[in-house]
Structure formats: structure tokens, C-alpha cells
Design a protein that fits this description.
Aminopeptidase; disordered C terminus; 5 helices; globular; 8-stranded mixed β-sheet; alpha+beta
Length: about 220
Amino acid sequence: MKNITFNLAQLHQHGTAFYDFLALRKRFFVDQLGWDIPHDDDVEMDQYDNPRAYYSLVLQDGKVIGGARAMATTAEWGAHTYMLRDAVAGKLIGIPENIIPAAAVTPNMWECTRVVVSDEVDTHAGRSECLGLIVDGLVDEASAQGATEMMALCPPSFARALRKLGYGANLIGEPYVNSDDGRRYVAMSMPAERRKTGAKTPAKPANFVNQAVSQVAVQAPASIA
């Protein structure tokens, strides 16, 4: 497995990787979870895929098998900022406005969204390694620009999976149930640091890692207010 990181100004350096990541997102979030989010027959792409976003993808034999995006909490693009801040401001239907106590606006805090690992990675060890590469790539991009903390909206199980991989993930809000897929989500934060070596691999089947990884930090399945 190989990790690549880039922003929109650099995506041409990686061939079709960005488009392939959007296609992977569409297959999971739209085709499998049935979310009502912007997409066509091939890809899923929303308002947070803009020049303020950075991406961390994992390739295997040249094929995108996982990825995520991140941006600083100071990001603004048109009428939008970052996902959790827009939720607190009431701009997103489906995510409670009290999902976090307050919306941070600081270059020290970055938000991670749209984490997904392909179903083609069908072993627990493979999915865990893919997740670690994705998160390490996000940490590298964020910390290089001064970030010390990262946050996300995720299933509670995802924070546990991160801790077992060696990341210092902690929940920072109350969970809610997504009305579209019936799953519980909660805000979490962690230091912008790579996983600690020697961490124990979660003693769970591949399905546990699948559920934890591919649901993290996603926009609610609804339109923008």
C-alpha cells in the first residue's frame, strides 16, 4: 500500500486518483448507505471538495482503495466553512446544531471528513493498515501547516479503532442517530500526531474495521439549508 497527499492544485500530479476517490465515495455513501447527497452516476462530490481541502489517499497496485479529506477550521469557500461549523450554524439539515459545544475557528484545529476504505480490502490487517496510512497522511498535511488537533464526526466505534491503532482519539460531544441510515454518530478529536508505534491491532473481525472506518466524518444525508 502507498499513501499520497495533495490539494486541488496538485491533483493533476496523481492521474485519476482524485476522481477515483470520488467514485469510491459514491459507491459507499450513496449506493450502499443510500444517502441523499450530491452525486451523479459515477461520483459523489460536495461543497467541501474545494481549494481549501487536502486529501490523503491509499493506493494498491495503482488503484485507490481508501482515502479521506481534511481542512483547517479557518476554511471558508463562498457561503460555506467546514462541515461541523456549518452544522452548528444551522446550514446542514440532519446534523444537530449542538453536535459540539462550540465551533472552533483556528489554524490549530483541522476537520477530517469522508473517510472510506474499499470493500476490496477484505482482511482485518489490510483495512487497519489502510486506515493508518490514511490518517497518518491527514496528520502530515495538517501538522505541516501548524495544526495541533484534528476533529471528526464519526461512529463511536471509530474512535475506539483509532485508539487501538495508536492515535489519541477522544469523544467531545453527545451522539445522535442519523435519520437516513439509522446509525449513531458523535464528534471526536485527537492530537495531530502519527500513530504511536507498538500499538495493538484491534482484535476484531474485518467487518468491525469496515463499519468503523467507512462511516467517519460525513455530511448528513440531506440538502444544504
